[in-house]
Amino acid sequence: MDVIKVVAAAFKRGTIVPAFNIPYLPMVKPVIQAIVDENAAAMIQVARLEWEKFGCGSLEAVAEEYFKYMDERHTLLHLDHVPVVDEDGRRVDYRPILARAIAAGYQSVMVDASRLPLDENIAATRVAVLTAHASGRAAEAELGAVMGHESGGIGRSYDEIFAGRIGFTHPDEAKRFVAETGCDWLSIAAGSIHGAIAENLRKQKKPEARLDIEHIKALRKAAGIPLVLHGGSGIRQEYILEAIAAGVAKINVGTEIRQPYEQAMERRGDIAYAQNTVYERTCWVIRDFLQVSGSRDLLDNIFDFMEKKNEGEV
Questions:
Q1: What class is the 3-302 domain?
Q2: Measured distance CA(72)–CA(261) in Å, rounded
Q3: Which of 2, 59, 185, 201 could form a Cys-Cys staple with 140, CB 3.0–4.6 A?
Q4: pTM of the predicted model, to two decimals?
């Protein structure tokens, strides 16, 4: 599959491409199997923090596992969240990481310079976009502050964050950001939060998040490109479905499948049992929560329509 075409088609049709994070290597196989069995189109992805603070080893290890089980019709490989400033406040040399991902076969990459001032975010993101595009890869970027990856969690009450629109992406900044960086997709902040990564917080249930749908609509109009929602776990379903209709075309799912894997391993210490638990949960996310079972066939129909339109047949 062509990752640019897939996300563009989802954006055009008002559907979603789920992107499943892999903090532990044995999760790759059951997640791919669930995607295929539900006849969906989805991404396998890994973020820097997942090889730094969890058990997936490296981006290369995830790619190697992915290519064992991939299905070209259903799956894509994405490098998630390479920060320019990480969750511990440290500067990260992101360029070698992007180069490693491209060499390993990732079809798209994501750089997150959102902890920097706007001008610096634009400059760093532009470098990442040029690197990705030079190798024919898609580039995702982030503007705004999706909280929760910091080592102490979100640091304040969720209601306070949402009511004050703290960290929300500003439409005027989004318009400038997209124009000056050339990014293909934009990760936005409109109410979602990341799962906590600190050891003492990982097992806690995420606060139930909400989304400002009117704000997402304004961002779609301003940005004009597919929007991405990070921190997809823990948001009420009605908000997710409304956000998809409003312009979100890719959604990251991490905690929703990570915690079942960890809990299964704690109960039995049996990888096969934990894999089955992840498979069942991933099927539920695709089929019941996001309601995108069969999306692969739907995207085929959109591809056909777009090609005919380009050729002047419709």
A1: alpha beta
A2: 25
A3: 185
A4: 0.88
pLDDT tens digits, residue range 1-54?
A: 899 999 999 999 899 999 999 999 999 999 999 999 999 999 999 999 999 999
Alpha-helical segments (H) within the chain: 3-13, 28-37, 48-52, 59-69, 94-104, 118-134, 158-163, 171-181, 213-223, 237-246, 255-268, 271-284, 295-310
Q: Do the strands 75-83 and 42-47 form a parallel or antiparallel pair, or are they unpaired?
A: parallel
Residue 159 φ/ψ region, left for φ over 0, alpha for ψ in the -120 to 50 degree band, beta for the rest: alpha
Neighbours of 33 (CB within 10 A): 18
Name the DSSP letter for residue 71.
-
253: β partners: 20
Residue 28 pLDDT? 98
Tokens found for residue 259 = 């915690």
Domain edges within the chain = 3-302
